[in-house]
Design brief:
Elements: H1 6-9, H2 14-33, E1 39-48, E2 53-65, E3 69-71, H3 77-82, H4 86-101, E4 109-113, H5 124-135, E5 142-147, H6 155-167, E6 171-177, H7 186-189, E7 194-197, H8 199-205, H9 209-224, E8 228-231, H10 237-245, E9 250-251, H11 265-272
Parallel strand pairs: 2-4, 4-5, 5-6, 6-7, 7-8, 8-9
Antiparallel strand pairs: 1-2, 1-9, 2-3
The structure holds ligand C2E and calcium ion (3 copies).
Residues 176, 198-199 line the site of one calcium ion (CA).
Length: 275
Amino acid sequence: AKRLGRSRLCFFDPQLESRALARRNLELDLRRALGLRQFSLLYQPQKSISGNRISGFEALIRWDHPSRGRVSPVDFISLAEEIGEIHPIGEWVLKTACRQATTWDSQLSVAVNISPVQFENDDIVNVVAKALETSGLAPERLELEITESTLLGDSDEVMRRLWGIKAMGVSIAMDDFGTGYASLSYLNSFPFSKLKIDRTFLQQAEHSPRSKALMKAILSMGESLGMATVAEGVETLDQYEELSRGGCTTAQGYYIARPMAPEAIEEYLRSSRPT
Ligand code: C2E
Ligand code: CA
Ligand code: CA
Ligand code: CA
């Protein structure tokens, strides 16, 4: 145990200390995870509603920790952001997703989540360029998903980086649309190709007429602005049909399919093809 002075002793909180220790251990493990090849990507299909076909997949990272088992990105991405590990991890995600997507049918796109912290660094433009170059993936098949909080930082710099990436032919989607604190005016400054409507809207729409109205308004705004609209977290046929009636272009969620390993994609596409 630590020797502390009498005055500080009364502030000693073993629970707090063990929590700090646990975090420190997780941090050390996270720093080594990439070198130990503990990360992998799962892919969740996105279905074009009008085309009635799979249009692409979103890459979702998984961390297989030797003793904790599979750690959710919800539990390590923010830590990775705090300690700067998000840069090498994010680069690995981009490279891996681009490489794996080259093995798919050339009609299929791949969407990659980019943390706001990655956009704080000017290097992000080069990282994207390098991932495309080393994989040989056509830039048109890559889509980056950013969140509103990305736009809250130094927005001039961020905009410059977004335009730089767009200039390569890569498209940018606004993820978790409607949950952040950015003003809608960013829709004037950048041509996002897609709005991904957060799962919470869809969940609430079932019980709340106001949420349903809001959902419809977002869908028609997307349509008037020429942006595709993706509903995430579609879990039921009812939700799917409601979205279809509302003019939503794309659906993603357990109703279509759960995130799957890259090895499962080929068979999934074969069995889900309309007959
Ligand atoms: P997100 O980008 O909003 O991803 C959607 C999350 O919803 C995924 O969770 C997905 O598995 C889950 N999901 C999909 N369909 C359904 C459904 O029908 N119902 C429910 N309840 N959930 C559904 P996941 O894979 O745990 O990822 C959580 C978050 O972690 C992601 O949210 C994203 O913000 C972040 N993340 C994942 N992979 C990466 C990555 O490679 N880089 C970065 N920076 N963040 C990532
Ligand atoms: Ca996403
Ligand atoms: Ca999302
Ligand atoms: Ca979300």
